[in-house]
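2024-03-11 09:14:02 INFO queue: dequeued item Aldolase, len=293
2024-03-11 09:14:02 INFO validating residues
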Amino acid sequence: MTDVADRRTDAGQPAPAASAFSALDANDKRVSVYQPEQQGLKFPQVPVFATHAEERQHRKERLVAACRAFALHGLDYGFAGHLTVRDPEFPDLYWTNPMAVHFSQVKLSNLILANHKGQVVQGTYALNRAGFVLHAAVHEMHQDIVAMCHAHTVYGTAWAALGRQLDPITQDAAVFFEDHVVITAEAGAVAVKAEVGKSVAAAFGKNKAAIHQNHGLFTASRHSIEDAAFWFIALERCCQVQLMVEATGIKPTMVSPERARYSRENVGNSFIGWLHFQPIYEQLVQTSPDMFD
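2024-03-11 09:14:37 INFO prediction written
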């Protein structure tokens, strides 16, 4: 296929990464209580795209930033870890990080585009087999899922060994209340056969997160790669907090179901996940300009 990745300015140079920040005006529709009611203030705005090419470039830039954010938070483990985002024009294709490239070294030029059969259709790097089996199955079965994240992390892997859902013991943990699932299918087995991916994908359901028993954490978003990436970082942290609390031997006080649902609806939705990622992105733009090479 032709190169669907390139976006150029009139001068023929790569277009710069756009900031998500702009001044809120009277025409902006508020979708969250966190958006300021006062007009004229700088606040991150979800971008609107005129073409598939613009949206593709945006998704690829944020995918690279998500990989860099995983490196920033120490979520790497050798070549393990897969982040994917669906192509806006060709929904049966998805962009992902290259095999055996550290999260901190992922950039626009080494991203790969793959199909649901595990074939690389654009890019020069190989595709991680386990990443293909699981992510391709989820993207193919759940057409509404735009992005997905998985990594072999310390606290998430430890918590996954328990085969339990997280408890709503904090406001942060409440965002996953009734919005994550424990998947026991193929628990602990390396996902290299297509059948494994299908069973995991079926169990994922409409949740934004999953704990794969004896394996680790997954997050998915119907909104953006930024949303999926932030909730993965948050999920890993919630696992860490619950392990620390349980290590005290003192039974924690639970957030009530009603309050947990209220917190999830107000600070656990896709917009908030996207919003949380914006300061991470802005920091990376300043500190890691090679992302867009």
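2024-03-11 09:14:37 INFO annotate: Confidence is low (pLDDT under 50) at residues 5-17.
2024-03-11 09:14:38 INFO item closed
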